[in-house]
Amino acid sequence: MKTVIAFIFSILISSNTMNAQTTRVPASLGREEYVEVENNVNLHITDLGEGKTVVLIHGWPLSDAMYEYQYQDLVQKGFRVVGITLRGFGKSDMPYGKYDYDVYADDIKVVLDKLHIEDATLGGFSMGGAIAIHYVAKYDAAHISKLALFGAAAPVWTKRADYPYGFSKDDVNGLIQLSMTDRPQLLENFGKIFGATETALPIGLGNWLGGINLEASPYATTQSLIALRESDLRSELPQIKIATAIFHGVKDKICEFALAEQMHKGIKNSYIVRFENSGHGLFLEELEKFNTELVNFIEK
What we know:
Blueprint: H1 2-23, E1 34-38, E2 41-48, E3 52-57, H2 68-76, E4 79-84, H3 101-114, E5 120-125, H4 127-138, E6 144-150, H5 169-181, H6 183-192, H7 203-214, H8 218-230, E7 243-249, H9 257-266, E8 270-275, H10 282-285, H11 287-299
Helix pairs in contact: 3-4, 5-6, 5-8, 6-7
């Protein structure tokens, strides 16, 4: 008798569970957290908010998580914000293969195609800014109506005979070697020059960024440094016809302010927003100004 009662009770519980599952109103809006850009390669996507769309590309060797304090602000102010983590970084897949501006731009195009993004503002930080420039030039600003560059590593990150700005190639070769032999030391060295001073960012924020950096694929970290060393986007700047805002820290030691001036000279419909008290970490060092200027640009 006890066995029969237990069996009936289990059926009732199962039935109630099934009813709860079928009547539940979904909490999720059904947006993709991962987008497949090619066979067996998925990129992590943060897709929040409603309204006019802002697409954000992170810098080396961060991930889309770096925009935490932009995401919340933009959503509160009535925008949809889509952060894309490039392959090899953060929670995105880390396949063996090519890691260069062409591959990254192609991946962005697939994501924007699949998400049916239109009339968006595309923002890119550091290496992500250079990739954003390459994307707009390569795909004639597909899906994009405005471009925002944040401490961008462009048009060229390393010195040339006719370009006296940025790191020397020998310096970058040293970074590449350190990436292959002591990556934590490389990241620590970059952390010290990320802000206007070594103490410009609170310890907590510095540790948070450092944790994101360590999530990156070691291989992608090295290959992206090679791409930064070799890439020259000067010929692509005149191809950019859309409105462009150039946000740059005056005290930037990783992408010196002269790079902002070179981008401004090359992009006809552009203007510079100077961050007088910031180094490379302008999106945190002058957070309120950064977010305000970004919203102002989107709404122009």
